[in-house]
Design a protein that fits this description.
The chain is α/β, with parallel strands linked by helices. Helices cover about 30% and strands about 20% of the residues. It has 15 helices and 22 strands. Helix 4 packs parallel to helix 6 and helix 10 packs across helix 14.
């Protein structure tokens, strides 16, 4: 089953898709605000919030800790003869502003003509070839059931154990569900995953760009507001005690604003890198603690020849990297590239090694799968992006944990504090689109509407 079909079958069986318009009316279009607004973070949420504020002719500045915009959208040029993505890569669903922007940019998508392969034991075969294998069918079925679940809250691992899924195929369900949601099977809430899937309204399909990078789409869409972005400025302290809000950066420079929009990743809020004075309300702190976000690694490998099946989209393995995508398919006939994605515990284990050692470990596993010396003998270049080690990101993306409270917790996280401090970003999306770029974008619109709702 191709990944796009898996998601389509899983989501649409919930009966919860509501195809609405991607274009939203501004309920506060007539209101004006003359105060100074700060946006913390120049990822998709912060950039879109700035874009909307610019339309309202508001006074705002975007402060970004890194030396580039995009947050977890980060493109890699010059590695191969086409652009690659170190972070977000897939446009998920065809009913979102993000999808519309990509289409409007003139980008073309990689044709959906490939199939997925799976490792069981020492064999790698396509889904069709595994079709009569009872354990394989049980693993795929359980993965679908895990996103249409109505029982007591449990982790995916506990769910697999209760279903007595054979140990030799558990990595398949883990990859299709937990790894895809940014973590590992022993951490992901099955009930929370189902709740988010049932709220999903972004349409069907997954889309990969064939002829340009996601960063270039952002740069084109937001070219008029990029002068309002101040790079290399990490805000460390937000004091909203007084009428005006004080922002202090890592160099102890202070700025004063009237309202602030926080769009930093959840893991930054969970750390001590950003301090609030006074401390955030306990309900807000509890919501920050009750959503997961952890390690995530993307590894990009270039080879001088293709040793995987020409029809392969992804291969799901039992090793340190649960999924490898044939990134050069539909993009190049000269470069042969696999992109590996690993989350949670497996990412933590790789992260404990140096990048060089982690890449060596990964190549050794590919040699085991495809034959002695096959991958290692063909490797020409490698790049590993460890998002947990990025000081301004600190992880992959948010996911539901057992006992975390689900979408209501995300809604609490999104609530403003004292009509001064506002929150956006993918983790604050409580309509089923957390963990996605389009969810971050939608939160940017929500937070601007909240800010103007509070303007009297």
């Amino acid at each position: 089953m191709q990944r796009r079909d898996f998601i389509k079958n899983t989501v649409f069986t919930t009966g919860a898709i509501a195809f609405g318009s991607c274009k939203e009316e501004d309920p506060y279009a007539e209101r004006e605000y003359k105060g100074q607004i700060a946006i913390i973070g120049a990822g998709a949420a912060g950039l879109y919030a700035g874009y909307l504020l610019a339309e309202k002719k508001a006074n705002y500045t975007i402060y970004e800790a890194a030396d580039q915009i995009g947050g977890r959208i980060r493109s890699l040029k010059g590695f191969a003869d086409f652009d690659l993505e170190l972070g977000a890569e897939k446009i998920q669903g065809n009913r979102s502003l993000w999808y519309d922007w990509v289409k409007e940019s003139g980008a073309s998508f990689v044709p959906n003509t490939s199939t997925d392969f799976y490792q069981i034991g020492n064999q790698v075969l396509s889904e069709t070839q595994w079709g009569n294998n009872a354990d394989f069918k049980a693993a795929v079925s359980l993965a679908q059931q895990a996103m249409n679940y109505s029982g007591a809250d449990t982790t995916l691992l506990q769910y697999m154990e209760s279903a007595k899924l054979a140990s030799g195929v558990r990595h398949i369900a883990d990859a299709l569900v937990a790894n895809a949601h940014g973590t590992s099977a022993n951490r992901l809430s099955v009930l929370g995953t189902t709740e988010e899937r049932q709220a999903w309204s972004a349409g069907e399909g997954e889309f990969l760009l064939a002829n340009r990078s996601l960063t270039s789409v952002l740069e084109e869409k937001f070219k008029n507001i990029l002068p309002r972005v101040v790079l290399n400025t990490q805000i460390k302290r937000i004091d909203y005690t007084n009428e005006r809000i004080m922002l202090e950066d890592a160099q102890a420079q202070r700025r004063y604003v009237d309202k602030v929009i926080i769009t930093v990743p959840l893991a930054v809020l969970q750390s001590t890198d950003l301090q609030f004075v006074p401390a955030l309300p306990e309900s807000k702190l509890a919501s920050i603690r009750s959503i997961g976000m952890g390690a995530g690694i993307k590894v990009i490998l270039e080879f001088n020849q293709r040793f995987w099946d020409a029809a392969m989209d992804s291969v799901y393995t039992s090793g340190a990297v649960p999924e490898y995508r044939a990134s050069s398919n539909g993009r190049s006939t000269k470069s042969f590239v696999l992109t590996g994605l690993t989350m949670g515990e497996k990412a933590e284990a790789l992260s404990a090694q140096s990048s060089a050692a982690a890449i060596q470990s990964i190549i050794k596993e590919l040699d085991v799968i495809y034959g002695k010396g096959v991958a290692s003998g063909a490797l020409t270049n490698a790049r590993l992006m460890d998002w947990g080690k990025d000081p301004f990101i600190k992880g992959a993306y948010s996911y539901p944990i057992v006992g975390g409270g689900g979408l209501l917790t995300r809604q609490t996280l999104s609530l403003p504090v004292q009509r001064k401090v506002y929150f956006a970003g993918e983790a604050t999306h409580y309509g089923g689109h957390s963990g996605t770029v389009h969810g971050a974008i939608e939160s940017g619109r929500r937070v601007v509407e909240e800010l103007y709702r509070d303007v009297t």
